[in-house]
Amino acid sequence: MNFESRTVSINEIDTQDSRYQLSLHIDTHTIIESIKAVGLINPPVIVKRDDDHYSIVCGFRRVMACKALGWDEIPVCIPPRRPTDLDCLKLAILDNRSHRPLNLIEQSRAIKKLSPFFPPQERFSKITFLLGLPENEKVFKKIESLCQLSESAKLGILENTLSLEAGVELVELEPEEQDCFAFLFRTLKFSQNKQKELITFVKEIAIRESVGIKEVINSEEIRGIIDRSDINRNQKAKEIRAYLRRRRFPSLTKAEAKFFEDLKSLRLGPHIRLVPPPYFEGTTYNITITFKDITELEQCKSEFDAMCQNPVLKRILS
Questions:
Q1: What is the C-alpha separation between 227 and 243, in angstroms, rounded?
Q2: Which of 118, 210, 232, 301 is the Cys-Cys partner for 123 at CB 3.0 to 4.6 Å?
Q3: For 72, phi and psi rounded to 5 degrees?
């Protein structure tokens, strides 16, 4: 595509028109410093609208930076003939991909903007090719769904404080509920698996107790843990997970607490381990004995015999 180089009034460019914009936020600080130092090396690409104003195809940050610097006019590149919206989107995508890989939110926004231009049977193959995505429909649908996240949750995706998998889990929730999770994960930096686990805990607690998700996350207990100054971030995350688990499984956590209290009374050494049935459902217990020589084995046998005579074991097994 050939372009005509021209200088236009910066006020004629509609910076609110985001039809070809892929990025969620426009950070101009770095590019402002670059333009101050060496000028505008790569002019933005714009197209003229019917109202005689211009839409930005490529170079939103460049236009915003020049505007912030107080420029009245800006050098631009304009196609000699008005390209289609699809051609403009393709150009915007290629321009962005030439500088760096598209992030997940940009990919999601691009999928949403491109989808109306392709028939359903071609949509997946055409868009994955344009975006350079793997031909995996499951992953494609997950990325596509991120457009339904709140602004705060999208920011979490960009900051890597909200994982793709957790983001997909949040899509079905209300924006305010997504914001609550985004704040929690941004504050305490849970791993991907822990994020999914906590989302499940909170949703199940809300259903079980007939309360709102916001009410669960904004509970006094969780707020109190977050505000504590005597423990670090990892400890706070561990305590919040334990609190939600206790609240989700009150009978299980009570059984666990009783078991471990009784276990202490058995005074088992480091070489004998008593394992309860999963979730305390059933009557089958396991005992693991570890030793490195005959002396340790004999010691384990003495401890094992003592354990069998201990009335606490009978209470555990009853």
A1: 15
A2: 118
A3: -90, -35
Q: Is the pLDDT of residue 25 over 80?
A: no
Instruction: Express each pLDDT in 252-278 by its tens digit.
Output: 777 777 888 888 888 888 898 988 887
Residue 306 is encoded by which pair of tokens? 């003592």
DSSP lists the bridge partners of residue 289 as 272
**pTM for this predicted structure:** 0.79
Provide the residue ranges of all domains of the chain, joining segments of one domain with +. 1-100, 102-148, 150-248, 258-317
Find out whether 108 and 146 touch, Cβ atoms under 8 Å.
yes
Domain 1-100 has CATH 3.40.50.2000: no
Here the tokens at position 267 are: 């005074």
270-313 pLDDT per residue, tens = 898 988 887 677 788 899 999 999 999 999 898 888 888 888 88
